[in-house]
């Protein structure tokens, strides 16, 4: 467990009487993709919120690169190397593709937003931004308005924004959601490479993607991890079949 890049130890979170996270202990190791699956409302996004710092757990702790970050704000965790993409897009739709990535690069540089007007002329930021766009295959779209991108391209752009922070661990909430099969194949291939640069905690409903990518899978049901294991272990787990996978196993 000591070599984990990211780790939760017994985190719990309730919303009123609803126990959305129940004593969750999971970890993310170097080079791996650890998928979190489970039905809608199981608590996947709530778990991610606590890992990234938008939600404070009622109990338990979160460790990032060996440091306890439970009481650190989101920004501090991002600076320490935690990158994320959101279930609901956080992009500025009226800005260009390049501007969105530049904003990410600017945030990562730790400089003030006041300088944003000069950002497009800052060559090191531009290089970082263009490199990130090239990596996700969006460099040709750099000057397009973000609103003109397809749904799948916006997902790719979110990954590019996350990459500008040079993350040491990535947390992704349903990156394939709403993508066509072509788009999810592309992103699957990209994440497959990316894991060697930054391991990925991947919340995803697309089981083709999960089964082809995951080194380990944890299954979350009613706020509780009911199983963690390899793809084969999870597919043949009776409790998992009953609670979630059914015929997909
Ligand atoms: P998932 O991402 O697995 O679909 P969520 O983590 O979004 O599940 O939600 C888990 C449960 O917690 C759901 O029942 C949801 O309605 C509830 N929930 C999530 N966020 C809040 C909140 N801020 N206040 C009250 N209930 C919430
Ligand atoms: Mg969710």
Give your account of this protein's structure.
Helices cover 37% and strands 23% of the residues. The protein has 249 residues and is an alpha/beta fold. Helix 3 (97-109) crosses helix 5 (123-135), helix 3 packs parallel to helix 6 and helix 5 (123-135) packs across helix 6 (151-163). The longest helix has 14 residues, at 181-194. The two termini are 28 Å apart. Bound molecules: adenosine-5'-diphosphate (ADP) and magnesium ion (MG). Adenosine-5'-diphosphate is lined by residues 15, 18, 20, 38, 40-46. Adenosine-5'-diphosphate binds at residues 15, 18, 20, 38, 40-46.
Jot down its keywords.
249 residues; alpha/beta; six-stranded mixed β-sheet; five-stranded antiparallel β-sheet; 10 helices; 23% strand; binds adenosine-5'-diphosphate; binds magnesium ion
Write the layout of secondary structure elements.
Layout (H helix, E strand, L loop, with lengths): L5 E10 L2 E7 L2 E2 L4 E5 L6 H9 L6 E6 L2 E2 L5 H6 L2 E4 L11 H13 L6 H4 L3 H13 L15 H13 L5 E5 L7 H14 L5 E4 L3 H7 L2 E6 L2 E6 L1 H5 L2 H8 L4
Parallel strand pairs: 4-9, 4-10, 7-8, 8-9
Antiparallel strand pairs: 1-2, 1-3, 1-5, 5-6, 10-11
The structure holds adenosine-5'-diphosphate and magnesium ion.
């Amino acid at each position: 467990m000591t070599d984990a890049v990211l780790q939760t130890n017994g985190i719990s979170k309730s919303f009123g009487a609803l126990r959305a996270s129940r004593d969750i202990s999971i970890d993310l190791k170097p080079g791996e993709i650890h998928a979190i699956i489970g039905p809608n409302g199981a608590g996947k996004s709530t778990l991610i919120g606590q890992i990234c710092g938008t939600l404070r757990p009622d109990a338990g702790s979160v460790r990032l690169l060996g440091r306890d970050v439970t009481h650190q704000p989101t920004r501090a965790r991002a600076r320490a190397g935690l990158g994320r993409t959101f279930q609901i897009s956080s992009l500025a739709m009226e800005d260009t593709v390049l501007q969105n990535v530049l904003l990410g690069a600017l945030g990562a540089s730790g400089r003030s937003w006041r300088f944003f007007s000069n950002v497009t002329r800052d060559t090191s930021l531009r290089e970082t931004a263009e490199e990130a766009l090239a990596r996700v295959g969006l460099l040709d779209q750099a000057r397009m308005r973000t609103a003109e991108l397809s749904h799948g391209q916006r997902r790719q752009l979110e990954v590019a924004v996350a990459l500008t922070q040079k993350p040491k661990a990535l947390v992704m909430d349903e990156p394939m959601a709403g993508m066509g099969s072509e788009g999810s194949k592309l992103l699957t291939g990209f994440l497959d490479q990316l894991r060697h640069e930054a391991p990925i905690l991947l919340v995803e409903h697309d089981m083709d993607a999960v089964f082809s990518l995951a080194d380990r899978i944890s299954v979350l049901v009613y706020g509780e991890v009911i199983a963690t294991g390899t793809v084969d272990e999870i597919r043949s787990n009776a409790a998992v079949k009953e609670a979630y996978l059914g015929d997909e196993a």
